[in-house]
Design brief:
It is built from five helices and no strands. It is mainly α. The chain starts with a helix and ends with a helix.
């Protein structure tokens, strides 16, 4: 579980950097940190403290889902880590978007197509990075 949490936090951090780049280029209005901020505060607050809270929430969610992914991997063969990571990323994207929409969280109302695409690509990045880091742990340690 330690490896899963670590891998998930690393995956979420890489996903965060990708999202910041996408937002800085003006390719998406809403990124994962905005969704995470909405999840924890249920209102679209602005400012540095709200941004930090969104980042902490985002990485914490990534950490928890990394542990879930590591648990699932421990029940199956350790082959095809990256493919499993892609599927996990897609499943998370569908689950989290559906959860946010069903819960009527502010950031999830009327998500524009470019933000939806950014979150899909971000989820794929999260799944790949998390799976890759877990594969490194699996080869080098007994933390998995």
């Amino acid at each position: 579980m330690v490896a899963g949490g670590t891998a998930g936090a690393i995956g979420a951090s890489v996903q965060f950097v990708f999202s910041l780049g996408v937002k800085a280029l003006g390719l998406a209005q809403t990124i994962y940190v905005d969704f995470a901020r909405s999840l924890i505060m249920f209102k679209d607050y602005k400012g540095p403290l709200a941004f930090v809270m969104g980042f902490v929430t985002h990485v914490s969610i990534g950490l928890v889902f990394g542990m879930v992914f590591a648990y699932f991997l421990s029940k199956f063969t350790s082959k095809y880590y990256l493919l499993k990571g892609l599927f996990f990323g897609i499943a998370l994207w569908v689950f989290l978007m559906a959860f946010g929409t069903a819960s009527r969280l502010p950031a999830f109302t009327a998500v524009p197509p470019n933000s939806a695409l950014e979150t899909l690509v971000g989820s794929l990045i999260y799944g790949l990075i998390t799976a890759y880091v877990l594969s490194l742990f699996d080869r080098r340690t007994s933390l998995l």
